[in-house]
Amino acid sequence: MPGIDGTTFPPCQSCNGGLLIPLSDYGREGAPIRYKAWVCTNPACGFHLRIDNGEISVGKQIAKSSK
Questions:
Q1: pLDDT tens per residue, range 10-37
Q2: Is 48 within the bounds of a domain?
Q3: What is the SS3 assignment for 24-67?
Q4: Of 1, 4, 19, 43, which sits most exposed with the smallest number of CB within 10 A?
Q5: Which domain holds residue 50?
Q6: Are 40 and 14 in contact (CB under 8 A)?
Q7: Looking at the domain assignment, is residue 34 inside a domain?
Q8: Structural domain contains residue 67
Q9: Exposed, middle or buried, 43 (CB in 10 Å: 0-12/13-18/19+)?
């Protein structure tokens, strides 16, 4: 399924029912960080990949941030 700008997103390999979409963020000094995380669009799946301080974390559960 194409995104708003025509980009196609890969299928989630964990559930095969959702797509992995990229999320961006801002660094400590305000610099944009493109594609900091990839999240499955299927809420029942919850699979995500995330980059924090140069380390990649993989998860199946999405938790609320304490910030």
A1: 999 999 999 999 998 888 888 888 888 9
A2: yes
A3: EEECCCCCEEEEEEEEECCCCCCCEEEEECCEEEEECCCCCCCC
A4: 4
A5: 1-61
A6: yes
A7: yes
A8: no
A9: exposed
How many other CB atoms are found less than 10 A from the CB of residue 47?
19
Handedness of CA 44, 10, 35, 60 (dihedral sign): positive
Token digits for 62?
């999405």
What are 36-61's pLDDT values in tens digits?
899 999 989 989 998 887 888 887 55
Structure-token pair, residue 21: 């979409």
Assigned domain for 1 exists = yes
Quick one: DSSP state of residue 23? E
